[in-house]
Write the structure tokens for this entry.
Amino acid sequence: MKLVLGEEQQELRATVRAFMETVSPREGHSPAVYARLNGELGLSGLIIPEEYGGAGAGMTELAVVLEEAGAALLPGPFLAGALAAITLTRLPDKELLTAVAEGRVTATVAPLAGGSALVADSRDGEALVKGRLPQVLNAAEADVLLAPVTRNDGVALVAIDLTDQGVTRVPLTALDETRSMAEVVLAGVRGRVLAAPPDGAALESAWTLFSVALAAEQLGVMRACLDAIVGYAKIRVAFGRYIGSYQGVKHKLADMHCKLEQAESIVRYAAWAADESPGELPQAAALAQAYVGRACFEVARDHLLLHGGIGFTWEHDAHLYYKRAKTDEVLLGPPRTHRERLADLLEL
Amino acid sequence: MKLVLGEEQQELRATVRAFMETVSPREGHSPAVYARLNGELGLSGLIIPEEYGGAGAGMTELAVVLEEAGAALLPGPFLAGALAAITLTRLPDKELLTAVAEGRVTATVAPLAGGSALVADSRDGEALVKGRLPQVLNAAEADVLLAPVTRNDGVALVAIDLTDQGVTRVPLTALDETRSMAEVVLAGVRGRVLAAPPDGAALESAWTLFSVALAAEQLGVMRACLDAIVGYAKIRVAFGRYIGSYQGVKHKLADMHCKLEQAESIVRYAAWAADESPGELPQAAALAQAYVGRACFEVARDHLLLHGGIGFTWEHDAHLYYKRAKTDEVLLGPPRTHRERLADLLEL
Amino acid sequence: MNLDEYRSAARTWLAENAGRGDDAAQADAKEFMARLYDAGYSGITWPERWGGQGLTQAEERAFAAEARAYTLPTYIFSIGLGMCGPTLLDRGSDAQRERFIRPLLRGEEVWCQLFSEPGAGSDVASLQTRAVRDGDAWVVNGQKVWTSVAQVADWGLLLTRTDVEVPKHRGLTMFVVDMHHPGVTVRPLKDMTGRAHFNEVFFDDVTIPDAHRVGEVNDGWSVAVTTLLHERLSISAGVGMGGGVDWLSELREAVDTSDPYVRDQLVELHIRTRALSLFNQRLAQETRAGIFPGARGSAAKLLLAELTLFQADVAVSLVGPEALVDERLSHAVCLAPAMALGGGTNEIMRNIVGERVLNLPPEPRVDKTVPFKDLKVGTQG
Amino acid sequence: MNLDEYRSAARTWLAENAGRGDDAAQADAKEFMARLYDAGYSGITWPERWGGQGLTQAEERAFAAEARAYTLPTYIFSIGLGMCGPTLLDRGSDAQRERFIRPLLRGEEVWCQLFSEPGAGSDVASLQTRAVRDGDAWVVNGQKVWTSVAQVADWGLLLTRTDVEVPKHRGLTMFVVDMHHPGVTVRPLKDMTGRAHFNEVFFDDVTIPDAHRVGEVNDGWSVAVTTLLHERLSISAGVGMGGGVDWLSELREAVDTSDPYVRDQLVELHIRTRALSLFNQRLAQETRAGIFPGARGSAAKLLLAELTLFQADVAVSLVGPEALVDERLSHAVCLAPAMALGGGTNEIMRNIVGERVLNLPPEPRVDKTVPFKDLKVGTQG
């Protein structure tokens, strides 16, 4: 088991962190930023095998990158793209993988678990897809949507061109403004079948990795929150003393630090399991969401509260982290789903 | 709804409190103490109707008394006697009620919920009871046990003379040494049938009132714990300051106070409902155990921890309160049973 | 007229005059206040001499009980009626009472309260807005924040620093400031819900006549304590009225109550809501019996702050991803921290409960004796 | 011999020499330590000059990894090996090292540590046991508490007050005290489990030769800091080894896991246990990679204290009334607070994490400058 980063991973982290320091959660999705992320940093192809033009890195590296993106609250389809890349590596489709690796195409995913509200007619390599997805992550900013579609022979995983004229994307007012969501209505759109019937194990494995990827982002959110409030506690004065000198603040920050230490340990473990010990992965992934999701929200909430009134203002970033943390906590389903999954895996 | 004590109830409280200040949780069961409790204070007959020689008071008064007994950790069958008196007032048996009211007989109860491990032969006013009860509250100190017994026509509530030679009482090592428990083995013991088949509503009502009675005791335990640790925080010094001046201690004590305020409000409400608004009682009683049981343990635990090392010693009383609180929390079944009951009553 | 008759008359008046539902426009609000005043329901316990009714708490409670069924359009007057007016009654001059109380009660003038600053939140007494004497007037410069209804206010109760050579509590002076003075700039302050419930107020060479000083020079802290006491009373009165949304009812429709985990979460919601509600009712009964709750109200406020966060948190967690695009739930999540920040943070409430209810010893204080100019205040790099 | 060979040899030796299971009697323990020493496994990293093996952390970890499968009867030596010996190596005189280290490593002499007092727990430096100079010796009077293995100890590392005119940290001196001196009284201290894991130790005109002083007069605090650092290291080593009972396995047999509420509680138990275990493993990997965990070990200790309380609490709550007469569960409930009290309370741990990991500013201290005789200490009515 490997819970500490190697040298190359630390270098990757330093590079990404330096880049992320130049972005702001307030800017909204900036194609120029993504062009640099995909170009000079090569992040769009990070986990895509080298044969498709990617860097062939593992979840450990992806986790490092997502943590930094989370810490910076990078707006736009970064997590969505990572989830799509994970999905594509399970169901390798040369054309899409190459396009994503090169940064030519931005992809997102519809929820993979549960049934599908989309239906399709044909049976060949293409499908004419109809239906409505009420809530798709970053659908407004993506070019391609990977979604399960119901056909008369079962469910297929289909890549849908979101720029097709039969697609209507209705932006939604989401809790977290740095993480856009849209309703997607498909009025008979040609989609490319990636897998029909899809390999259940591959979809399951992708879904499991989503939990790890999201937990990595959550780890970054937690770390940024703790750093911010620790920093503030050292400069903000009340009653003639820095607020960080009061045990009421200090002890809460210590508890937040404890959560961060455990969260980081779990994320490193889950990423390691994904790369090196697939047998441990399902439990590790469920643990990651069950622990880190909650811990991240608690830390983000307390970091906002400890800022006092300033944390409640629109101008301060605290609320952006709070909203992101709450969003992430339920992004893959109500928290109890991860706990139930863990109970099943523990054979309780 | 009445959530504050009237003048007479406050006087009762003052009298009982003054008496309880003379008892020690270390002494074990003292018949002399009980003789005075039942005699000069008349507590054994408190809730027994006047026609049977009691004072005819309500649950509000009983709650006041149990709170003080809990605060003092009065050893012996005080709570058991109260539960037995509650049961008897639901299934009035003149002889036993009179004997209990006069303090001639000390009664206890077997768990009323669930089935019964006892069986009986006959069908008349008496029953020959056999069987084993693994864990009976204060069985070693009581004269009479009220227990459900299975007969071929159903379940009867039977009063069993524990001094009968067919009774074997095996004292158990219980977590809380101030609250004795014993295994009771009955090898064909003559018991008096109080109700056959027992009135289900009456038993249900008794069981509901047990929750209120126990919550009143728990309220007393909480109050005594908070008083003790607040007092200690005002005299104990660390690093040149009273420990109560540190927010690490102060804020925890404030949270404990909040729990106590809510617990007292709930206990007063549940006792009022028992006396004046039976329709509200089932929910109020389930709420009482669901909230007060947990709050009491948390307060008792934190009061022990905040005492530091001294709280861990046998000589200090902190551990007695901690053990009583944990005992009380599960006395009427695992805590989830009260929460489930509440969910049912809320028609969730 | 006995209390029952009073209450019955109030019921009738409200039925005829009060609308149900949405807040009315500001003009309507002023018109409504005038009618309320004319009917004798504004300033029920305030002295007759200054325009009040001179009645008792009993009448006030009776009216409040009847009014609970309505949403009266009195929000913009709440600061004036809850804090500024009572402060002038306690500490103002007769001339000030004569000038200000009746127009306040009649809804002719709106008031705001100007204490908090960006660098002085929990620790209000460390504020930095300066008032410098200039003959018969004072000149004020500085910035206030978290000011409700400032954008529509005619008058403000303003706490300023008038002496930096003495410790912080001893160099403050209270004034009534004309919000229409050209040196006053009000800027809406957007909060995390995206709405502007508050304002920032900037003072740029604002002159105030000395006749508008409330209390003695450098005795402003004791005046402010009066105001804050009234604030706490009006918040804890609000606490007693319960917190709006009935989450249990809402959620039982929205989630799968056959899932035992969900059931247990809803039970927890019920338990906490009921526990606090009963505590509030007990405090109210004690108050009626003549036992003043004092600092115990801070325990209720702390519990309400925690409950509010818990409710929104549980609601979103149970509903899941759909909650993220549900306007009502999203708004609840955004608004949830407000109760834990406004009217004193949870840490301040725990200090109050610890020190004033449990009588625990205070922290060693470094800020009570140092001259203000030498004191560390605000945010320091 | 390379590391693999070393480890393999240790495995062989342990298989032949170590019993599994119960603690051995004291005589057996001493005999076992002698064999351990003769085999070269006592004081693996300690200097050869004083009887150690002079090897590296690598060998020590290799031996510890192999020894984990056994319950070695070394408990009574743990204070000496973990704290007293390392302190003498760091701060003792050569004569003291010559006299004491080898008998300690060979298990001929048992050591205890005498710092805490009834009035000085978290705040050890406020201790009151006095040592007064008398020619070439010192005379000690006072009381210590929480002393493990004092009843069998031959020597004790004793921290005393030698000057009350200076602030508390500057008037302490460290000694080695002969536990067989007639003025030393050891009384077992029953804890809340009903067992006596600790002792109280009373000093009544106990004389100590000046040659047994460790470090300079009035420089005892810096010596104690060395000892406490070693204590923390040996506790955090223990933390890394995990906490004994596997509650999840035990409970899954005892409770109804088809009840979704029970399942969720067991999942919570798993989550917390796994989270801490992974954190400990990460700290261990970092240590191996040369990153010293420092005060972050206090975070692990704090989490272990909370987990231990949670485990016993959940176990009893799930099992219900029967747990009250179950010896194993009852004992777990009684022992649960120990981890939150011993080796520093949770509050102290949070201070350490806050100040030494997060570098938050310290509390204002009133006790560092006042002469000890004027300082408030202990418990004051």
Summary: The mean pLDDT of chain A is 94. Chain A touches chain C through 49 residues (CB under 8 Å). Strands of chain A lie at 107-109, 118-120, 126-137, 144-151, 154-161, 167-172, 181-195, 237-238, 241-242. The two ends of chain A are 25 Å apart (CA to CA).
